[in-house]
Amino acid sequence: MQLVVARIGRAHGIKGEVTVEVRTDEPELRLGPGAVLATDPAGVGPLTIETGRVHSGRLLLRFAGVRDRSGAEALRNTLLIAEVDPEELPEDPEEFYDHQLMDLDVVTKDGVEIGRITEISHLPSQDLFIVERPDGSEVMIPFVEQIVVEIDLEEQRAVIDPPPGLVDDRAEVASARDAEAAPADQAAPEDQA
After folding, report:
1. Phi, psi (5° rounding) for residue 158?
2. Given phi > 0 = left and psi -120 to 50 = alpha, else beta, which region is 65?
3. What is d(CA 145, CA 108) in angstroms, rounded to the nearest whole number?
4. Is the model's pLDDT at 125 over the cut of 50?
5. How high is the pLDDT of residue 187?
6. Which one of 78, 84, 92, 142 counts the least CB within 10 Å of its CB?
C-alpha cells in the first residue's frame, strides 16, 4: 500500500536542499537517508533521500542527483509516497494511518449515525475528517480527542461527542449583548405598570 508521507516545499539554499511538509508521524522511519520514495507526479521520481536535517523547526532533505537550487525548485509541490505493509500499525496505539480511518462509520456517543469518512484533510493546526452523510451532504469533524472520543477499528467506526452545532442545527448563540438585553426587556413591563 502506498501512503503520502510528505510534500516537497521550496528550495533551501543553493546546494539542492528542499523544505518538506511532513505528513507522517514517523518521519525518522519514512524519511531517513537511503529511503527510496515514489512521487506524484510519477515522472519526477523515484527519489532517494541522501541527507536530512532539521533547521529552524523544518525538515530539510537533499535527494540523490539534486545538487543545485534550480533542481530543488523543480521538485516543489511533489508528493513523496512510501510503500507500507497494509497490516503494519503505528507504534502508538492512539495513532492511525489514513487508510485505517477511511470508510469508518461515524456515530455519536448516543449511537446516532452521522455518516462515513470519505477523506482526511491534513491542515497545519489539526486533521479533519470529511464525513459524507446519508443524504449526500458533507460535514467536517476535527480529529481531536475532545470530539473524536473513540476509534474502533474492529467495529469499523469512529465515535464522536460533537459540540452543539457541529453536526446539527442546535448551536447555542451566547453573547454578552444578549445577556445584558434580557434583564432590560424583562424590566420594561414593570416600569409601565
Report:
1. -115, 125
2. left
3. 14
4. yes
5. 47
6. 92
